[in-house]
User: What shape does this take?
Amino acid sequence: MLRVIAFLLIAAVLLALAWGLGSIPGTLVAQSGPYRIETSVPAAIVILGIITGLLALSLRLIGSLRRAPGGFGNWRSGRRQKQGEAATDRAIVALAAGDAAAALAAAAQARSLLGDRPQLLLLTAESARLAGKTEQANAAFEQLTLHKGYAFLGHRGLLQHHLAGGDHDAAATHVLAAGDAYPRSQWLQNQRLEIALRKRDFGAALALTRNPAEIAALATAAAQSATPPANALRYAKQAIKAAPGFAPAIAAYAKALRKTGRDRAARQMLRKAWATSPHPLLAGAWLDGIAAPIERAQAAAELAKSAQGHPESELLLAETALAAQLTGEAKRHANAAIQAGATDNRALSVLSSLDPGIATISAAAHAPAAKWQCSFCASEVSDWTAICSNCGKAGTLAWTTSGTLPADHARSMAQITR
Ligand SMILES: [Zn+2]
Assistant: This one.
């Protein structure tokens, strides 16, 4: 109802205006040269209104056209953004799938569309590394180090590159820089240890580990290479504390004690260690400095008293007797070692030296060797080292004298020792 009333009112007003306009008297004349226009005043007012409306419409159209390039630019940049994001997604997926070439191409496309964003630099670096393009990878990692939030990732990439290439000094520089960028990284702590191990910097490596086996091995190595005897003692004590009864550490401690003139303490410690856990390294430390074979045999007999009848005691007595040409003693102790349970080739080697028969030589050749074996990579070495030369791990070498003897060799050993 209200709308009807409003409509009638507006119609009435417009009718009144038209009537008012039409009733204006007079004539408007415009003349230019031979042209003459003559019209009534109401018609002139209507024409003026139309011209004003057209002018306003034209101005509005011109404004729209002026704004048009901005609108087109926004549309274009939105399209680039979408294409760049799609290329980024493709690069991520290709990288995860191990398709280095596709990942690299997609990352390059994303960078051309979106610019050198840190995420894209990282994608480029990792893709290039996967593709074996080291220089391209390093260039991207270098660029990444300049981005505050991503500097850690840049230094991390360069650190891995230098570590793989064996450039430990360059790797150490990036460890420091990465540490500044992200101080609480456990990964970085492991890398520091890795670098110290590769550089054989035992002191530095010791400060970076809490693993008892690693501490024992590294402290022993540090004691072996320390120049001042006081330092050697300190490191050896640290090693024994981490792994009581660890033969390399006890041997290193005895050597350090001797260097400080405490020969008696060294002998006492070696004798005590032999009583609980005889080991060739302890015998080596006990006999250290004794040159004459007969004196070595006598000294060995003194140490062996601490663990009489033990296979290692018998082996020590057999080997030192053989060196001193006490053949009867050597044979007796070698047989005693086998009877006591020695299964490695040392006793058989002594016997084959005394009686080079085919059976003995064959048995010695097939018996397992006493050795240090890495618990990580299973590689075997005859001499103990703090760091496995094969896998680079610290504290993984364990002494082993056993092995699986074939049944026929077990029989032949029984015949030899009969
Ligand atoms: Zn190993």
Q: What stands out?
A: The radius of gyration is 46 Å. Residues 128 and 137 are 5 Å apart (CA to CA).
